[in-house]
Amino acid sequence: MIKILFVCWGNICRSTMAESVMTYLVKEAHLSNQFYISSAATSREEIGNPPHHGTVTKLRQVGIPVVPHRAVQMTGEDYEKYDYLIGMEDLNLRYMLRIVGEDSEHKLYKLSTFAGQSGDIADPWYTGNFDDTYRDVLAGCQGLLEHCKKQLGATL
């Protein structure tokens, strides 16, 4: 089983969008029993809050169910629990590294790298643009799924 944790600042916009998108893509690929997917924040600002209404609205527009979720903070123990800890931007990765101490097993990634890009996933909290965020999250999750399918190849 591949365990993935998506991480952003508050765990109400980008990481919850990625969690819902990846969960949907995995289900559509009939691989749900091969994955455990969740999301978390690097900060404590939104702990306990549901996904942002903009994330919910965008996912509904494109027909992707929103995973029931309340914001939680990433912990050092998550490094042992998950195979992939995926931040949305460079700042997330810096805070994630502070939380886990070191990335000796090379588990920390930026989502855009799975789409063959190096940029950050724009934070719609500031831009208000959930369309661009969704486009980038979808591309990253599609790339991540393809990456994971190769990893699962021997077990499928």
Task: Describe the structure in your own words.
- The chain has one domain (2-152): Response regulator (Rossmann fold, 3-Layer(aba) Sandwich).
- Helix content is 42%, strand content 13%.
- It contains six helices and four strands.
- The protein has helices at residues 14-28, 53-61, 78-81, 90-100, 124-127, 130-152; strands at residues 2-8, 35-41, 84-87, 108-110.
- A four-stranded parallel sheet has the order 2-1-3-4, sandwiched between helices.
- α4 (90-100) links the parallel β3 (84-87) and β4 (108-110).
- α1 packs across α6 (130-152).
- The protein is globular and about 40 Å long.
- The relative contact order is 0.21.
Task: Write out key terms for the chains shown.
4 strands; Rossmann fold; 4-stranded parallel beta sheet; 156 residues; 6 helices; alpha/beta
Helix content: 40-55%
Which CATH architecture is right? 3-Layer(aba) Sandwich
Q: Count the strands?
A: 4
Shape: globular
Can you identify the CATH superfamily? Response regulator
Average pLDDT confidence is: 96
Instruction: Give me the number of helical elements.
Output: 6
Order of helices and strands: EHEHHEHEHH
Oligomeric description of these chains: single chain
CATH class (first level) name? Alpha Beta
How large is the radius of gyration?
14 Å
Class by alpha and beta content? alpha/beta
| Arrangement of strands in the largest sheet | 2-1-3-4
The residue ranges in which pLDDT falls below 50 over 5 or more consecutive positions are: none
**Beta strand %:** 5-15%
State the major sheet: 4 strands, parallel
Total number of domains: 1
End-to-end Cα distance: 11 Å
State the CATH topology.
Rossmann fold
